[in-house]
Write a structure and sequence with these properties.
Helix content: 55-70%
Structural class: mainly alpha
Number of helices: 5
Order of helices and strands: HHHHH
Radius of gyration: 13 Å
Strand content: under 5%
Largest sheet: none
Shape: globular
Distance between the termini: 22 Å
Length: 89
């Protein structure tokens, strides 16, 4: 899924085709909701979350990222970092 999203991202233009936008958006949600079990998977997921720029006022994306970080034992920089800060760590 992450590789496909990376491919779509490379094809993104100023006015991308509707199909590309729909597929990319569907993948962003699926990738975010799918648990990461490896450092490589977590790094790819962080990249996708950053690109997606989700509205995370309720902290759901941050909680997902924090759970993934704990699962793959990625050291967090701050205990209460935002999803954006975690994604760029």
């Amino acid at each position: 899924m992450i590789r496909r999203h990376d491919d779509l991202w490379q094809q993104w233009t100023e006015e991308p085709p509707t199909e590309l936008v729909h597929e990319a958006c569907r993948l962003e949600v699926k990738i975010t909701a799918t648990p990461a079990f490896t450092r490589q998977g977590f790094a790819g997921k962080r990249r996708v979350v950053l690109r997606a720029a989700f509205d995370d006022d309720d902290g759901i994306v941050a909680a997902i990222i924090e759970n993934d970080a704990a699962r793959v034992r990625v050291r967090k920089r701050r205990p209460h970092a935002t999803a954006g800060e975690i994604a760029t760590a």
